[in-house]
């Protein structure tokens, strides 16, 4: 159908072979800092700035802003929302000294944005810092084609029942292993404390684990791992759902 052809065209817009020679160009002493934040719908957004000095900590980065009315984080008449750097990771897409910056969101009056749950979580973690709390989390996710169908499933149909897919090996048992391995290596490069991966019981459903992490670091590393997964899947023309049970059935 025309709609399916449109989805296929959208999935093929990314041209890494065309991008590659430009990423090799010398950028001098400039650093690209991509700010990443959680929007008003629990999605992820990002924008990039040029930094002209070496970045050793978040104190070397400036507060930025964005149009919160476009991210469900502010009304149109008072749309400026500020981004305050919270954590820094190496950038696996651009390499070099370029960085990814996880940022918190604040309103014009300096108060935390209503979507800034990190602010409140950090206050609690700071109260318990002498206890050195450790955390580890599993993140399940499912991959979908650009048209919304589960990745690798028969179009308009279903795969065989669960059994061979969990921690599976071999054609017909696992899907998109190349994407999953790319995400794993990107997390390690970025400095994310990813501790493992495995295929889940449903075809095209996977899981990665993050931790052990101490205090607020747990949330920072998990959110950045999610960002990397979505960003890498973008290059494959694949959508990611973090819903624990996105499809009905015995999965």
Summarize the entry for a quick read.
The chain is of the alpha+beta class. It contains 5 helices and 9 strands; from the N terminus they run H-H-E-E-E-E-E-H-E-H-E-E-H-E. A hairpin with a 5-residue loop joins strand 7 and strand 8.
Describe how the helices and strands are arranged.
Layout lengths: L1 H10 L4 H8 L7 E8 L5 E8 L12 E4 L12 E11 L8 E8 L10 H11 L6 E11 L32 H14 L3 E6 L5 E10 L2 H20 L2 E3 L10
Parallel strand pairs: 1-5
Antiparallel strand pairs: 1-2, 3-4, 4-5, 6-8, 6-9, 7-8
Helix pairs in contact: 4-5
List keywords for this structure.
single chain; 251 residues; alpha+beta; Ubiquitin-like (UB roll); Creatine Kinase, Chain A, domain 2; 2 domains; 25% helix; globular; ATP binding
Shape summary: globular
- How much of the sequence lies in strands comes to 25-35%
Supply Rg: 20 Å
Computed structural class: alpha+beta
Number of domains: 2
Beta strand count: 9
What's the story with the biggest beta sheet? 5 strands, mixed
Q: How many angstroms separate the termini?
A: 30 Å
Description of the structure:
It is a single chain. This protein has 251 residues and is α+β, with helices and mostly antiparallel strands. The protein has 2 domains: 28-129, Ubiquitin-like (UB roll) (Roll), CATH 3.10.20; 134-241, Creatine Kinase, Chain A, domain 2 (2-Layer Sandwich), CATH 3.30.590.10. It has 5 helices and 9 strands, in the order H-H-E-E-E-E-E-H-E-H-E-E-H-E. The protein has a 5-stranded mixed beta sheet with strand order 2-1-5-4-3, covered by helices on one side. A 4-stranded antiparallel beta sheet has the order 7-8-6-9, with helices on one face. Helix 4 (177-190) crosses helix 5 (217-236). The model has no long low-confidence stretch (mean pLDDT 94). Residues 117-251 form the GS catalytic domain. Its main location: cytoplasm. One of its GO terms (molecular function) is ATP binding.
């Amino acid at each position: 159908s025309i709609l399916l052809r449109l989805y296929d065209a959208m999935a093929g817009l990314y041209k890494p072979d065309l991008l590659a020679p430009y990423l090799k160009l010398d950028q001098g002493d400039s650093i690209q800092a991509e700010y990443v934040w959680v929007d008003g719908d629990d999605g992820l957004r990002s924008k990039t700035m040029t930094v002209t000095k070496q970045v050793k900590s978040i104190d070397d980065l400036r507060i930025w802003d964005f149009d919160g009315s476009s991210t469900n984080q502010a009304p149109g008449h008072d749309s400026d929302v500020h981004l305050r750097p919270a954590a820094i990771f190496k950038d696996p897409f651009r390499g070099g000294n370029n960085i990814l910056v996880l940022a918190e969101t604040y309103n014009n009056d300096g108060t935390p944005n209503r979507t800034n749950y990190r602010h409140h979580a950090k206050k609690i973690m700071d109260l318990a810092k002498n206890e050195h709390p450790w955390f580890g989390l599993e993140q399940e996710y499912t991959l979908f084609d650009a048209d919304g169908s589960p990745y690798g499933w028969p179009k308009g149909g279903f795969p065989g029942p669960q059994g061979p897919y969990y921690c599976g090996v071999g054609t017909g048992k696992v899907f998109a292993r190349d994407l999953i391995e790319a995400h794993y290596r990107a997390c390690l490069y970025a400095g994310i404390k990813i501790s493992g991966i495995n295929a889940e019981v449903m075809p095209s459903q996977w899981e990665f684990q993050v931790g052990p992490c101490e205090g607020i670091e747990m949330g920072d590393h998990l959110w950045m791992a999610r960002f990397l997964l979505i960003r890498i899947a973008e290059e494959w023309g694949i959508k990611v759902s973090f819903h624990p049970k996105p499809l009905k059935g015995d999965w």
